[in-house]
Amino acid sequence: MREAVFIKKNTEKWKAIEREPVTQNDRADPDVLTDHFIELTDDLSYARTFYPSSPVTRYLNGLAATMHRRLMRNKREDRNRFVQFWTLELPLLFRRSHRLLLVSFVVFLVAAALGWLSAANDELFVRLILGDEYVNMTLENIRKGDPLAVYKSRGQADMFLTITVNNIRVAFMAFVLGLFASFGTIAVMFQNGVMLGAFQYFFYERGLLLPSVLTIWIHGTLEISAIVIAGCAGLTVGNSLLFPGTWSRLESFKRGTKQGLKIVIGLVPVFIMAGFLESFVTRLPLHPVASSAIILSSAAFIIWYFIWYPIQLEKKFT
């Protein structure tokens, strides 16, 4: 779009934003202010990309700063900031990262398939990946008639804390290793995928695939999905270095890091819920219908919040 057309198209909107009330006493609607701020930052991003040295870019930058101060002064907006992060800001970040989310998912899926095939063709592969101690313990549990007794072997509170902290650590590792041009993140996704594939084949080989799925995926649906999404966050950082686009590499890196970090922070509640399910629910003798309901509900939530809802939100603003 030519600069003159861009200015003509948006001038009235910018003037209206300039006239927005400054404080809550002036009856400023924080929801309207937020919507206008998002529109304004979109215009600013467009101007920075196509007219970086133009006066209109400096004008929009100043107007955006003024709008930000208005939002910070508005008390109701301050109270709603937490809600808006989860209902608006974070889903829109997910939408911008959907392509990388697909890449992360494909890498994980391919790695899981390789783990399954490797375990099927090498009887020692499972021990190499999962460790002799775990394999021997599980074989003993199978002989006792309770193949998944490992989930009952520890106290619930201690198990919840340990598992949740470990999962969050893995997520942040996947994010931080994105600094190595995305290769570190891909390595984490590949390692976890291979482990999952070998793990599931171990139970399949003994005729326990369905019972294992109905037990393990009670918490695994959220846990594995969150790890894949954390891989997306790491790829966001790595790609900001590899493909800066019209931004300087430093500016692209700062934006990618900020976006990726917000995605990882957004996963913390998911890991907490996964830890709760693994520690308090997985050990219960649930009916297959109840287990299936939990698994399907978890999958539906992941698909809705991380894929469908961001797409609908983008359409709304577009």
Automatic annotation (TrEMBL):
<keyword id="KW-0812">Transmembrane</keyword>
<feature type="transmembrane region" description="Helical">
    <location>
        <begin position="226"/>
        <end position="247"/>
    </location>
</feature>
<dbReference type="Pfam" id="PF01944">
    <property type="entry name" value="SpoIIM"/>
</dbReference>
<feature type="transmembrane region" description="Helical">
    <location>
        <begin position="168"/>
        <end position="190"/>
    </location>
</feature>
<feature type="transmembrane region" description="Helical">
    <location>
        <begin position="259"/>
        <end position="277"/>
    </location>
</feature>
<feature type="transmembrane region" description="Helical">
    <location>
        <begin position="202"/>
        <end position="220"/>
    </location>
</feature>
<protein>
    <submittedName>
        <fullName>Stage II sporulation protein M</fullName>
    </submittedName>
</protein>
<dbReference type="InterPro" id="IPR002798">
    <property type="entry name" value="SpoIIM-like"/>
</dbReference>
<keyword id="KW-1133">Transmembrane helix</keyword>
<feature type="transmembrane region" description="Helical">
    <location>
        <begin position="100"/>
        <end position="119"/>
    </location>
</feature>
<feature type="transmembrane region" description="Helical">
    <location>
        <begin position="289"/>
        <end position="308"/>
    </location>
</feature>
<keyword id="KW-0472">Membrane</keyword>
